[in-house]
Specification:
830 residues; alpha+beta; 6-stranded antiparallel β-sheet; 32 helices; 20% strand; elongated
Length: 830
């Protein structure tokens, strides 16, 4: 995506006009304009010069973002600095000073008899000329509205400034006409006409409109500046210098000078300058800047460290691995800013309305004036109503309703270690009905650990573990690592073993102190030692709980069982319960056999377990789940990437592979499953906030325009002075932006306000098949795979022990087709 700066936009009609103009350029596949950040993202093959020309032809300015702005290498918050508010503030102060004098002369004297110099009090023409002069000064101070507004008319793209310029300009021109007419009447001695024209002055309305709109613009600019606080905070975290070691000499250099493989040192209390790996020393590192986790993480030699995290305790010497725009911090900043440059689908409604809003309002204002004149209203009164229609109408609130909420929501997520790559992912996460969780590394830790030690009579745990670790230390199997880790934890030393053998599919054997020792599965050890029924029963119970029992023997005596399992993460059951309490169906995907999968699924508390899923089958499962509602897939491995892409929202665990992170729409930096319900809560809160903003923006205009047009005057006697209309317009955008800022106070990890959202599920049909010939989990997987390849079959749970396959169908299918499909694989359907 090519990024551009856009200048001259004042409202949603402007951004819609720019988007429309750029979309027509040959080679542009998509264009997204952000009124919030005055930026534009363009995808396609079009040349930058052609894009800039299209923007300029539409009446606006554009420039290609330079490398410094596009790259996170030289991270700087200057690009997001609020430069608008100080400028508007100066204009506002000057406008208020002259407006106060104008209001004193025009209304203070007439309404409250405030004293005036005699040359004004006795000379109506002089009073009119002073009002004219003060109004001209205020119009010059706020000339931006007229330049932008009339430029919009010339380029046939009227905007909010056009409405303000027309309203204020019409009031000024009519008042000037009244002043000249009054002068003529006074020259003719018609004092009654003079007094009549005095009441036709609207100079104060013209000036007040401009001043009040400027008040609104300042409040809006200030609030918009607040929406990027999270992004500016991230940018300010980046260290400016690093201490590099070359030839044994420490030198402080700018962060831009650090190259890959440079050696740098970090002392206690200092920020780590770039991503690297520790070569020497150990420390506790505060990573809250990146992950939101306040508890420091212990780091030792060989551990990775990230830029902008703080070294809290020890002196460490590191080698730079990722610098400049490749650091984790830079990638987070780029992800958050890129998300702000994209558009949520819900914004399309507001964009369509904004595109035609201003021309429609101008037509309504003209019709209003004509109708009131036709029914006999004085010209001044009819003009006043038309001006009110022009100045109360606000397309800005419509244009800001979605992007400000998206920007604030993204910032809240970034502060909590939840990164949304696009506005679409933030919006969609608020509509999720189903969450599919990969088992390994997501629900479980992904690293097998010893869970149970069962010893035979007369054998101690230490003796069993010492024999086990002596055997397993020669093996590279993941289960062996679990036993080695447990032995190290209990400080048990391994012994020397000879004649070591790995017997594939069975286990290990060797000679220890002239005695044969062995470890492996039940069948393998049964041939070497007698296993009593109590031990067998215990092993079966462990297997049913999703654990792998490993038997160990010495000579012809059974030493005992060590059970190993990929243990469930501490926060997984709570996170899954929170998801279910939110009305979300939780599905676990795993390649394990049904028995093991069911045991883990039961411990975790999921709604449904889909076992025997091969790596390339996860995508098909997601496609079928999508028929039931919006699906989020949570995973961390390379084999999860297709499923993450296929889901409505892909969520990658931050500690996972780069491929999974690239394929995902949301990245969880803390690698905690509890951040999944937090991300969905944030999505729901953001979506609710957008709905509130859009409701306010639409209802404000739906009520305000008829009121300004005098539609309620004949019925209730209600009317609207242009000055009050301008005040309402100036506050409408401010209200929308302020409402979006409330998202900063959302407690995304609190389940107190969770509400169940009912998903519209299609009625499911089920069938159970009795199958003869399934002997093992491999058979289950085969039957499951061939049946799920049928488009009518949504999911299958096969069980070789029961000899059944339970099918969930999305449409009717004949028994003959099902029978033929299974029997072609060599099984018999009963």
């Amino acid at each position: 995506m090519e990024q551009f700066n856009v200048t001259g936009m004042s409202c949603a009609a402007c951004s819609a006009r720019v988007e429309k103009a750029v979309s027509k350029v040959d080679g542009v596949s998509s264009c997204s304009v952000s009124l919030l950040t005055n930026s534009m993202g363009v995808e396609g093959t079009a040349k930058a010069d052609d894009i800039i020309k299209a923007v300029e032809d539409a009446g606006y300015g554009a420039s290609l973002k330079n490398d410094r702005e596009k790259s996170a290498k030289s991270v700087d918050s200057d690009a997001l600095k609020d430069t608008e508010t100080p400028k508007i503030k100066k204009r506002l102060i000057a406008s208020i000073i002259f407006l106060a004098v104008l209001m004193y002369i025009s209304m203070g004297h007439m309404m409250w008899n405030f004293p005036l110099p005699s040359f004004l009090a006795e000379n109506h023409i002089a009073m009119g000329l002073v009002q004219l002069l003060l109004t001209v000064i205020i119009m010059v101070i706020n000339q931006h509205f007229f330049i932008s507004g009339f430029k919009g008319i010339i380029h046939r793209s009227p905007n909010m400034d056009t409405l303000v310029a027309l309203g204020s300009g019409a009031a000024f021109i009519y008042s000037t006409y009244a002043l000249f007419a009054m002068t003529n009447a006074q020259l003719n001695g018609d004092m009654q006409a003079v007094m009549g024209y005095m009441h036709e002055f609207y100079f104060e309305s013209a000036a007040m409109i401009l001043t009040l709109i400027t008040v609104g613009k300042m409040l809006e600019a200030h609030s918009k500046g607040k929406t990027t606080d999270a992004l500016k905070g991230l940018m300010n975290l980046a260290p400016k210098t690093a201490v590099i070691v070359k030839d044994g000499v420490e030198t402080e250099v700018s962060i831009d000078s650090v190259q890959k493989d440079d050696i740098f040192v970090v002392r206690p209390g200092e920020s780590i300058p770039v991503d690297g790996i520790i070569l020497e020393g150990s420390s506790a590192v505060n990573e809250s800047a990146l992950t939101g986790e306040s508890i420091p993480t212990d780091k030792n030699v060989g551990d990775k460290v990230s830029a902008a995290t703080i070294n809290q305790s020890g002196f460490i010497r590191c080698k730079a691995e990722r610098v400049g725009e490749d650091t984790t911090l830079s990638q987070i900043i780029r992800m958050v800013s890129d998300a702000a440059a994209t558009k949520a689908p819900i914004a399309k409604i507001a964009d369509k309305v904004s595109g035609i809003f201003v021309p429609v309002v101008i037509i309504i204002a003209i019709i209003t004036a004509v109708i009131w004149l036709l029914i006999g209203d004085p010209f001044g009164s009819a003009l006043q109503k038309a001006i009110s229609v022009l100045v109360i109408s606000c397309p800005c609130a419509l244009g800001l309703a979605t992007p400000v909420a998206i920007m604030v929501g993204n910032g809240v997520g970034a502060r909590n270690g939840i990164l949304f790559k696009t506005a679409v992912s933030l919006e969609t996460s608020g509509n999720i009905n189903i969450v599919a969780l990969d088992k390994t590394g997501t629900i479980t830790s992904g690293e097998p650990k010893v869970t149970d030690i069962v010893t035979s009579d007369g054998i101690s745990e230490a003796e069993l573990l010492q024999t086990a670790v002596t055997l397993e230390c020669k093996s590279e199997h993941p289960l062996a690592k679990a036993i080695i880790g447990k032995a190290e934890e209990m400080q048990i030393t391994r012994q020397e073993i000879s004649n070591f053998q790995i017997l594939a599919g069975n286990g290990l054997s060797g000679t220890l102190e002239n005695t044969l020792v062995a470890g492996g599965n039940l069948n393998f050890i049964s041939s070497r030692a007698e296993i009593v029924s109590e031990i067998k029963a215990k092993a079966e119970q462990l297997a049913e709980n999703g654990k792998t029992p490993l038997f160990f023997s010495k000579g012809n005596k059974l030493l005992g069982i060590i059970a190993v399992a990929d243990v469930i993460k501490e926060d997984s059951p709570r996170a899954i319960k929170e998801l279910r309490d939110m009305g979300i169906k939780v599905v676990m995907l795993t390649g394990d056999n049904v028995k093991t999968a069911d045991a883990i699924g039961k411990q975790a508390g999921v709604d449904e377990v889909i076992a025997g899923v091969l790596p390339d089958g996860k995508e098909k499962v997601i496609q079928k789940l999508k028929m039931q509602g919006k699906v989020a897939m949570v995973g961390d491995g390379i084999n999860d990437a297709p499923a993450l892409t296929s889901a409505d929202v892909g969520i990658a665990i931050g500690a996972g592979t780069d491929i999974a992170i690239d394929a995902a729409d949301i990245v969880l930096m803390k690698s905690r499953l509890s951040d999944v319900p937090a991300a969905i809560r944030l999505g729901r809160s953001t979506l609710r906030n957008i709905h509130e903003n859009l409701f306010w923006a639409f209802i404000y205009n739906i009520i305000g325009i008829p009121l300004a047009a005098g539609l309620f005057t004949p019925i209730f006697g209600w009317g609207l002075n242009p000055m009050f209309g301008a005040a309402a317009m100036s506050l409408s955008s401010f209200c929308v932006v302020t409402n979006a800022l409330r998202l900063n106070f959302v407690k995304i990890h609190s389940a107190k306000r969770d509400k169940k959202i009912k998903s519209k599920e299609k009625k499911k049909m089920t069938k159970t098949m009795k199958i003869e010939g399934m002997m093992c989990p491999h058979c289950e997987a085969r039957v499951k795979q061939v049946l799920e390849e049928l488009p009518e079959v949504e999911s299958v749970v096969a069980n070789h022990e029961k000899g059944t396959a339970e099918l969930i169908l999305n449409k009717e299918i004949s028994d003959e087709i099902l029978k033929k499909t299974v029997e072609e694989q060599g099984y018999k359907v009963l």
